Amino acid sequence: MPQERNARQRMMQDAIDGQLSEAMARKLVDMLGSDQSAAREYDRLRRVESLLQRAPQQRAPARLAATIMARLAQRVQAETALADLPPETQQVMMLCLSASMMAMMPMMEAASWLVLNARRDPELLGSVMIETIGWMSLVTDALIQLLEDAENRARSEPEIATATLALTPYLLRSMLDYLDELPLKV
Amino acid sequence: MPEIDPVILEWVTRAKSGDADAFAELLYLFQDPVYNLCYRMLGESGEAEDAAQETFLRVYRNLHRYDTARPFKTWLLSIASNHCIDRLRKRRMQLVSLDDEPTAAALALRSNDPTPEQATVAGELSGYIQTLLLQLDEHYRLAVVYRYWYQYSYAEIADLMGATESAIKSRLHRARKKLAELMEATDRFDLEGEDRLADTLSKGR
């Protein structure tokens, strides 16, 4: 009887959470006394609870805070340096970003189409979501890296910004080609 | 919902206006809970360290978005957990196996650290729990971590994970059932062994 089994399990879990009324607790005790398999199951759940209650905290490595503060200092320095870029270079960099976002639109549309078409099948929807989120993450990370590198270089050579703008469509194309070659697991 | 600590709020306000010392205070206070969450979710100390760093950098960038009506720790942990789930998704995308043995707990020696014996036993227990945790689906794992490492209520976990309270309850029930099955399958931890661990750990508390 799956329903009976579910009700029994719910009662055990509620007991472990301390959320069982007195009457239900008595019912559970009676049941555990008369059903050996239920008693074993309850014992296993209590062992899990006991183990998790004692789970030790993992402490951060001693260097963590210092590393983060150093990275923050670098970031603030980089942001200050970017603010010093000539206004034309800043505008070109913004244009690069806009062009990249526009170029990603078809991919976003394709991802939406895939998700909409897969929603009737939970298993397929799960796979499609994993795939599309993975693609998006890959492309977004690559773009962030590209633009950060371009910003850094534009500080010493402002004309680099224009070259980046010209190269952006080709780089996006290459990324899409790379994704195209990945085996689709959906 | 836990009360808002005025000292933390003061540090947040100062950090928002660019006070690096105030941010450092927040960092020192919350580095352990953030690192622990990353480690429990990702299962590997190097990656957990990277994830904890990235979490704090994101926090710094998004301090202006922090809603001061919510506890800062809750907001911080939600950023850490979202980042860890993103990393796990990317890891799946890159076809990296999740079945690798997690590294044993690497406990840095500090003045208030446990004795070597306690550290070894804590590491053993920690490693064992980690092996079990890594076999849970990431959303189940996160619910377990919030519940047992941070003592959040079902309502708080539901708020953190954007789910209903009954969904979280059901997730935790399934997670505990799965863990019970895994424990039985490994049978490495007999009751006697658990008691020994509990005794040694309780001496360190």
Uncertain runs of chain B are 96-114
Oligomer type: heterodimer
Report on the biggest sheet of chain B: none
Query: Total number of β-strand segments of chain A?
Result: 0
Q: Indicate the radius of gyration of chain A in whole angstroms.
A: 28 Å
| Helical residue percent band of chain A | over 70%
Number of β-strand runs of chain B: 0
Strand content of chain B: under 5%
Supply the number of helical segments of chain B.
Answer: 9
Describe this structure in words.
The complex is a heterodimer of chains A (186) and B (205). Chain A has 186 residues and is an all-alpha fold. Chain A contains 7 helices and no strands. The model of chain A has no long low-confidence stretch (mean pLDDT 80). Chain B is an all-alpha fold. Chain B has 9 helices and no strands. Chains A and B meet through helix 1, helix 3, helix 4 and helix 6 of A and helix 2, helix 3, helix 4, helix 5 and helix 6 of B.
SSE map:
The complex is a heterodimer of chains A (186) and B (205).
Chain A: H1 2-16, H2 22-34, H3 36-53, H4 64-83, H5 87-118, H6 122-156, H7 160-181
Helix pairs in contact in A: 1-3, 2-3, 5-6, 5-7, 6-7
Chain B: H1 6-16, H2 20-42, H3 45-61, H4 72-93, H5 116-133, H6 138-149, H7 154-161, H8 165-186, H9 191-203
Please describe the structure with a list of short key phrases separated by commas or semicolons.
heterodimer, A: 186 residues, mainly alpha, 7 helices, 83% helix, B: 205 residues, 9 helices, 71% helix, globular
What is the gist of this entry?
The complex is a heterodimer of chains A (186) and B (205). Chain A has 186 residues and is mainly α.
